[in-house]
Every structure is written in structure tokens, then in C-alpha cells.
Amino acid sequence: LFLDDLQWADELSLQLICALEAEMETNNFLFIGSYRDNEVHSSHPLRAYLSELKRKEIDITEINVGCISKEDVNSLISDIFGMPQHLTRSS
Predict the structure, then answer these.
(1) CA-to-CA distance for 74 and 31, rounded, in angstroms?
(2) Would you give per-residue pLDDT tens digits along the chain (91 residues)?
(3) Which SS3 state, helix, strand or coil, does residue 6 take?
């Protein structure tokens, strides 16, 4: 299950995600959540739920993705469509 923009999730949604993670951890359930870390301050509810999952010893892997350059985006699009990069480059 992939959910984007968790920085905007309400309290009940975060509770549900936390409960699912805690309940499904041993049942081959993969949850991927993304959020903008610059919008999730130390007192944000998402931080509390992440801490709670870690306290319950649920494996969490955090990957920080920085800014992606135009060249890297073009390379990705070129690979996806199987086209040379000069044809997928924006002007």
C-alpha cells in the first residue's frame, strides 16, 4: 500500500495506518508512505506515530530523497519510454 503526502493526513488516518502496520507486520504487508520532511516538524502528529511504531519494534526504513535535477528526470523519462534523451528533453 502506497500513500503520498502523509504530512496532510488527519489524526484518524494516522491511527489507522499505525494500527495496520502493527497488525500486519508479520503478514507480508508492505506499506510505503511519503511525506515532505520540511513540513513535518518535531511536534507534528506523524512524528509521534513514527516514534510509536519504532517503539513497537516495527521495522521502518527511511529514505531521504532530495531535489531531482532536470537531467535526471529526463533520463528517467527516456528510460521509461525507451527513447533517446534528446527526444524527451524539454525546452
Answers:
(1) 28
(2) 899 999 999 999 999 988 888 887 667 788 899 999 899 999 999 999 999 989 988 888 999 888 889 999 999 999 999 999 999 998 7
(3) helix
